[in-house]
Amino acid sequence: MIVRVALDHPLAALYDYRWHAAQRPCVGQLVRVPFGRRSAVGLIFEVAETSDVPAERLKPVEQACEAMPPVSAHWLELVAFAASYYQRALGEVALPALPAPLREAERWERLFAREPRFAPTDAGRRALPDALPARATALRRLAGALIDEGVLGASQARAFHAKAIQTLEAWSAQGWVVEAGSDRVGSGVEDARADVAVDAQRVALSPQATPDQAAALDAIAQASGFESFLLYGVTGSGKTEVYLRALERLLLVRPDAQALVLVPEINLTPQFERTFRARFAHLASDAIVSLHSGLAEGARTQNWLAAHEGRARIVLGTRLAVLASLPRLATIVVDEEHEPAYKQQEGLRYSARDLAVWRAKQLDIPIVLGSATPSLESWHQAEQGRYRRLTLATRAIADAVLPTVRLIDQDLEKKRGVNTIEGMSPTLIAAMRARLERGEQSLIFVNRRGYAPALACDACGWVAGCPRCSAYAVLHKADRTLRCHHCGWESRIPRACPECGNVDIAPLGRGTQRVEEAIGGVVPGARVLRIDADSTRRKGSAEILFDNVHAGDVDVLVGTQMIAKGHDFQRVTLVGVLNADSALFSHDFRASERLFAQLMQVSGRAGRAGLPGEVMIQTRYASHPLYASLMRHDYEGFARAALTERREARLPPFAFQALLRADARTLEAALAFLDEAAASLDGLPGAEHVTRYDAVPLTIVKVMNVHRAQLLLESGSRAALQAALRAWQPRLREIKGGETRGLLRWVIEVDPLDI
Ligand code: ADP
Ligand code: ZN
Ligand code: ZN
């Protein structure tokens, strides 16, 4: 018997091994095999009778992971599709999709070790609280945990008291405790329950659905088989409520079904998890699990296994969760489907949203893509009738209306001699003060973190730059450093200009820290909180900061796009937007789509709970049509105009793109490789339908002393582009030496978001 195994290696697709264990090998089984001089973990993709490899060179499988049920054929098909579409080797996709401990055979035994579990009886629930002396604190806590959690694994029990197992056995003899089967070590109750009570009141009772919600739910419920729904609902229209009810229904009708809910950001998972746990409180604690890169490895592995073994009914996760093994997947939700965060930018560069749609089609199940500002790709699909559009036109809460959006015309103010203070118009400052007086909250959106995006010398024009990147160094005043946001380089702020000695060097532009500081000055008495990647570096700190906002301990919240998304702030009535203009004139054709979505999202934080909301956008381009659409909350008008432009320019979604990116020690080497690569496309299948653009340096051409350039390919036919890319790869591997010396690596990116 021969097994064909995928290994995490960029070249061959599958490797043949001999199988000589007693039981038959299983497709989807995890195995350890000899690879080179070491062992490697791989996945069996095929079982065969014969191999092209000569028998004497076939090596035997060393070990099979029998404790883990094999992954399904559907899952193998999913990773095979992802590998092929995104131009990677099978194993490069399949293996990294598994949690790390599964990829290390030495850890299998511990991972799947089983232990007894204990549960209190009714008699135990009554007797235990009074049965223990007050000074036996550890045992009292053990009893408390047992009663609160309903079941404890042996290892959890031992954490309370070294002799916990003897104690539990003694309680068992008393009839207070029973052994409740066995389970995997550590797979017991999670700590996620703690916060449920807070939200339980708010969401446990589902509100009466609005007519729009009801219509959307009916449509989703009637789907038989694959259907893509585009849930187009203004901010605050209650899209989450639609997801909750759709899943409620599903889990009711199909008691074994699983659902996958994707959210764009790790920061949004705790809020979602609480909401879902509260609504589905009747489910076992491991029936709702989250999957994202912020989880500790152990928790992520247990959650992954809960999904894989079908115990998890609802899996909430970020983009990586789209590759989770879900043998009974019956529906998929992608919240904020337009978010660029669904695109993985390293390793396998995939779009989780696109893979989710593929997965739904593969399994013949419905998928709901939710957004207030759908991606133009999805909107176009809906216009074409391929996705079914479900519209939630108004906010769900009766008296919550969309905020009024007004522009603060900075050119006009300047002409009239109105002075800004630290970049803020007096109109905006007065509005913040008024909110403070009324006990309402303001939110100020700044799209840059740090104190100032640059530090400059007025005398000679010097600007502080990163020595390793072609980028300015960002001034961080709090810890008196200059930092590069591209490579992490850091240095002390110089006392004087290193070029001319001038001591009057000054910050250029404004980041979140500077705005935070300025608001402290112009809105006296305000409690100002900043939320950005710097203030939330420690694990869990974002959640604590957001809790402060929800608790009303904050008057003005300053932040980057982290504060723009998803959060349901109840008392924010003013949203201010500073320096958004730069995106209006970007060379990236998606910049305006992104800006519009971002501003709609951040505006959507205002006035959610019935208090009237107001949005003020400071701009020097008050007559720009993007702002006009925004003031009317007119996503549809914006999308229509943008799609017309895209159609005329033959840009996505009217064309398909791929990039070849090259990294090299010199820009010349990167460009030389790309030129040669472009020439080598000649004559390949599909290439006649593919347009090649000139190889160009990236905007930030140098990062960490590595020079970066790219070559854009475009085609009206996805199939032609795919065929050309596939045939191209072997040729690319042959390009080396000569002028491309210094080339470090190259990568193909299909459907790139950043051009
Ligand atoms: P979205 O995700 O569309 O921005 P949310 O799902 O966050 O909107 O809902 C906005 C607010 O409206 C939440 O506070 C939610 O509890 C509330 N809500 C949703 N549906 C209803 C409903 N049918 N009746 C009353 N309140 C609702
Ligand atoms: Zn100088
Ligand atoms: Zn740098």
UniProtKB/TrEMBL annotation:
Cofactor details (free text): Binds 2 zinc ions per subunit.
Zinc in keyword set: yes
Keywords: ATP-binding, DNA replication, DNA-binding, Helicase, Hydrolase, Isomerase, Metal-binding, Nucleotide-binding, Primosome, Zinc
A single MF term (Gene Ontology): 3'-5' DNA helicase activity
Residues at which Zn(2+) 1 binds: C457, C460, C497, C500
Cofactor: Zn(2+)
Presence of keyword Metal-binding: yes
Gene Ontology biological process: DNA recombination; DNA replication initiation; DNA replication, synthesis of primer; double-strand break repair
Reactions catalysed, as given in the entry: Couples ATP hydrolysis with the unwinding of duplex DNA by translocating in the 3'-5' direction; ATP + H2O = ADP + phosphate + H(+)
EC number: 5.6.2.4
GO cellular component, one term: primosome complex
One protein family per Pfam: Helicase_C
Domain Helicase ATP-binding: 220-392
SMART domains referenced in this protein's UniProt entry, alphabetically: DEXDc, HELICc
Residues that bind Zn(2+) 2: C466, C469, C484, C487
Role summary: Initiates the restart of stalled replication forks, which reloads the replicative helicase on sites other than the origin of replication. Recognizes and binds to abandoned replication forks and remodels them to uncover a helicase loading site. Promotes assembly of the primosome at these replication forks.
Subunit text: Component of the replication restart primosome.
Record-linked PANTHER family: PRIMOSOMAL PROTEIN N
UniProt cross-references to HAMAP family, sorted A to Z: PriA
Family: Belongs to the helicase family. PriA subfamily.
Entry protein name: Replication restart protein PriA
Species of origin: Pararobbsia silviterrae
